[in-house]
Amino acid sequence: MNIRATQMRVNMQSMGQMRPRALPTVAGRLFHGSIVYRRNNASLSSLDKAQTLTEKIVQRYSLGLPKDKVVKSGDFVTLSPHHCMTHDNTWPVASKFMAIGATKIHDPNQIVFTLDHDVQNKSETNLKKYQQIGIFAEQKGITNRFGVGDGIGHQLMIEEGYAWPGTVTVASDSHSNMYGGVGCLGTPIVRTDAASIWATGRTWWQVPPVAKCHLTGVLPVGVTGKDVIVALCGLFNNDEVLNHAIEFTGSEETMRSLPVDERLAIANMTTEWGALSGLFPIDSVLLSWLRYKATTSAMYESGRGTKERFSHALIENLTTSPIRADRGATYAKSLFLDLSTLSPYVSGPNSVKVATPLRDLESQKINIQKAYLVSCTNSRASDIAAAAKVFTEAAKTGASPKIAPNVELYIAAASLAEQRVAEEAGDWGILLAAGAKPLPSGCGPCIGLGAGLLEAGEVGISASNRNFKGRMGSPDAKAYLASPEVVAASALSGYISGPGFYEAPEGVTKVILGEGTGNVEADKATSIEEALAKLISEADLLVDNAQSSLFGEAEEAPKEVEGAGLTEIVAGFPEKVRGEIVFCDADNLNTDAIYPGKYTYQDGVSIEKMAEVCMENYDKEFGSVIREGDILVSGFNFGCGSSREQAATAILASKIPLVVSGSFGNIFSRNSINNALLGLEVPRLVEGLRKEFSGKDKALTRRTGWTFEWDVSRSEITVQEGEGGAKWTQAVGQMPPNVQEIIARGGLEKWVKAEIGL
């Protein structure tokens, strides 16, 4: 086996006492790593210094960089984001903030509070939590705050100008990718990170590999941004962009066919595609939208500083000092999609990796019981107008513009401001007249909270972003995702269907997509350029090595000593982790499956209760199968989905110390380290288990009889394939002392507290 170790260094000195050290990655590795060896920036060629748009924006918001440092994918940086948003999880973040002994918010203007997830919950417990958040905000001088009914946090970040083009803006929620729709590098953080930003103004971040998604053609009439991202998730469904930053590119004509609202929907669901961000360019379409926002903000004073954030002077600066990717910037991969070949698509059931042309589902006449025009993805005024048009057009043909019998349509605007626009336009009233049930602006059914959830045996279609099993109600229901027009048409007909607005362009028989840019000559030129850059880089390295030899700069090779290569074990960290393997044979086992959303915003849930509901939406028998000390093994992209830390802590509550998978979702990896759950990526083990048990009766959670041992000091694992079976070992990544310290102390929160002497 070809084992390649690469060294990475985290410079966190500017975060007080926090100094994480080198993190290596090898064939079997600690969580996710896509790090490529990079020489010192001083010897980078001019081509190597070319940056992607993502790298350029990160460069602007990184602190303590060495002189002439050029930020590249793989680098660890100390990031000071433009803004940081928390929502209903604000109080748990505040609890962490206070637990580490912090008393003062580093920069109150950097912080934004929104209440949006559980807004229908009028229980004393929830109302008390909201009250506590309000009191905390007053005490700490947080003026950027929004209450129940104001809107969904991500939409507010956009419409209030907190997510500004060319900045890094984060949120403790997985759909902060949405900010990329306005040219803002939005990326999710977890609760512990948010507490760190409150206290210090900064946190650590690793620049992910960057993927380019090149769009060609123009969107046909009747096809939306939602169709674009549903198709991308379902047609590129082999983790092509897992844990990548995506940059969308295209000609001016192509980009003009994607208004900002459509870009927001696409960027929002890059989360479901597996990416850490989804960035659109700062172009003429965006600048026109910004100027409109600046004008309307100046006309209607909100009292929240909106007009200052949307000033024409700031917009002019975007035009005079444009930020865009350099020619020759290196991308980890390039994909393309011809928009002109796209038709309406539907996602599901119960998976974003399954995308089907609407025409194929329409012919099946799949009955629905519930429809939803909700969420930060697709419930802006333009979406509500598109849904209303379906009913008005139906009325013109003589059909009844009413929701079908036995169907319930729930509507909730992305924000109160968007609802008012829809009301003034008459679109909101059209939907109410059709029989829609209004909900307060908030997350509601999308997160599985409040009225209208799917019941066992029901089928629902939603304009939201996530249709994981059990996400929107019962695990025994089926959920599909589609555009607002298709949701409205389905509610009208009673089965999954479209409004008939789409007409296939002449000669289009299939979706054209693939690797590269879709332009053979351009792709050939890019390949030549990349090959040239590699040759120059290798030549530079040869020169550097020759100079080192001539002038005595090379270090003497270390002498071999007994015990060399062993990892030092920090006090309190186990030298070995051993247990029987319990196998959950599923790829993309998401956070809703691990820890259901209906429990996420119930603060104070006991450890026993967390263990009881762990994996409830995946396998209700999980708790009765596992035993204390088991090693949980699952498939690829484990822990994808939301930023909830309980996905990690519920596994710990089940007394499982280690999760092994083919690969991890990035947010889960971060939450696991922060909460002292161990994780290893060992694809070979997953493949071996699948081969062994593929012919057996299907069990969602299986006791395998195999044992797994991780010798931390030797950085190797040993697998015993049952009694009398094969036994094999494999090298894995070293567990660096800094991560050992965090886990040995019970997580990042306790580690920070110990480091600052509290």
Helix proportion = 25-40%
Mean pLDDT equals 88
Would you tell me which CATH topology of the domain at 576-755 applies? Aconitase, domain 4
Overall strand count: 27
* Broad CATH class of the domain at 576-755: Alpha Beta
Shape: globular
Distance between the termini: 46 Å
In the predicted model, the low-confidence regions spanning at least 5 consecutive residues are: 1-27, 32-43, 540-564
Give the name of the CATH architecture of the domain at 576-755.
Alpha-Beta Barrel
Q: Proportion of β residues?
A: 15-25%
Would you identify the CATH H-level superfamily of the domain at 576-755?
Aconitase, domain 4
Spatial order of strands in the largest sheet: 24-23-22-21-25-26-27
**Largest sheet data:** 7 strands, mixed
Provide the gyration radius in Å.
Answer: 26 Å
State the helix count: 26
Keywords:
758 residues, alpha/beta, Aconitase, domain 3, Aconitase, domain 4, seven-stranded mixed β-sheet, five-stranded parallel β-sheet, 26 helices, 27 strands, disordered N terminus
